[in-house]
């Protein structure tokens, strides 16, 4: 189910503006990889290239390759829609569909991928996905209520349930806890630790403690100055990154000297 | 878990607390002087807003009152008396049996227009908001808005002079092919001055308002929801179906009701195109079947005696009530799924 992602020499552009330059990295399957770095360094932009979501912005494009199990996601015959079905995403702010009930939200992706699904199969999938997102016990009595009536943390877990309901191979999380309170954050972090048994998880975070808590490997992005492209400074095992990074900039950032 | 979830909507209406919030008790002189300018402006604004709100109610009440008072003689007179005093009043009819077919014709014409216009308007609005390149979109939006600026008498001329030769063969084909369907019962009128032509012209007339409102609503779809759909692997159309259309649903209904309001009251175009009749008839391809309230008023008003005017005003009262009911129905539809509107 989970797959390795191999990024080679990726440049990301918004029209003519080079936003991120020369990123090469290997993302291991069934592990949590965290991206850290100061605001504007391109880590979210880079994350969005892993499921081609950056293309939603007009003028955005990339040079280089992103290979998943040997297949280049940017190959000429690869449909971005198909890529996104393999690589799920959770956003910074919880975004359940407001017009749908909790149940419909969980099934939203499945109904796109596979139009017909029997009611019993759907029930099962809703339950297993919500269990997977540690939300089942809180919502099982109100599956037909609107998803937007939940608290922020619950909404975010609903979005995770929606993402894993389509059984992706990779789950991208773009600062999933930045709009949540500490207890909801903890719930999401616990969930991430459980989900990595099945999925390859990539998480962008501003919170270095969070990166240290949840991730196996950490990548540090930095930017030389305004208008300059963001770069991958280094990537290593999280323990190594937080104890003895090889780059001075990483150490400065982690020890709170800037950022 | 931190379940601060509240499914109940905020009970405080927007602007509600404003009315009684900044009203500090009459304290010391110094405190009063400090806030006096602010409070004066606040109070002035509150009364202006309240006044504007009251004015619209007053106007509505005045219109209703005018209609009832002026319609009263016709409403209380018997059918025989109306038949004697009014030259165009049908024999052996009462005021109810006179106004009934008019109401029917009005609703049928407006429904046809809405049926024809709404899908096209939603299509145009979606194209402008989600498919067209930006430069084409703004140009197209402008052109659609221009349609609204054309006076209805011009639509009437177009509908009575230009349109018939074009639609007559089509209507004939409809009657020949789908004549078994009551709406399309033949033979189609050779003049083309039938209710379907009216519906077509009305549809063009209400297209801009429905398109403009729908487009604005679609453009307001939160980017987060669109991205949520796309990230699940939705195609453009699936994204529109999961995120844009549900979000815009109540807005589109409001837009359609605005259009319906215009179609119900449209006078000139109907008057110039339709060959009228006073029947409860679904035959929209035959001439001399239906008439609308507004067109009937315009047609008969110039030669109406006092009792005739009163009768026409009674039909106007019926139109007023219909419009009110239509709007209430639209509100009810919108309110029914309020929890799911995303407003909470």
TrEMBL record, chain A:
Gene Ontology molecular function terms on file: ATP binding; ATP hydrolysis activity; phosphate transmembrane transporter activity
Pfam families: ABC_tran
PROSITE patterns for this protein: ABC_TRANSPORTER_1, ABC_TRANSPORTER_2
Residue ranges annotated for the ABC transporter domain, each copy included: 5-248
Keyword field: ATP-binding, Nucleotide-binding, Translocase, Transport
InterPro entries: AAA+_ATPase (IPR003593), ABC_transporter-like_ATP-bd (IPR003439), ABC_transporter-like_CS (IPR017871), P-loop_NTPase (IPR027417), PstB-like (IPR005670)
Any one Gene Ontology cellular component term annotated for this protein: membrane
Protein origin, superkingdom: Bacteria
Gene Ontology biological-process annotations: phosphate ion transmembrane transport
Protein name: Phosphate ABC transporter ATP-binding protein
From TrEMBL, chain B:
Gene Ontology process terms (BP): phosphate ion transport
Membrane topology: Multi-pass membrane protein
Location within or outside the cell: Cell membrane
Keywords: Cell membrane, Membrane, Phosphate transport, Transmembrane, Transmembrane helix, Transport
InterPro entries: MetI-like, MetI-like_sf, Phosphate_PstC, Phosphate_Transport_Permease
Domain ABC transmembrane type-1 residue range list: 103-330
Function comment: Part of the binding-protein-dependent transport system for phosphate; probably responsible for the translocation of the substrate across the membrane.
Protein name: Phosphate transport system permease protein
Gene: pstC
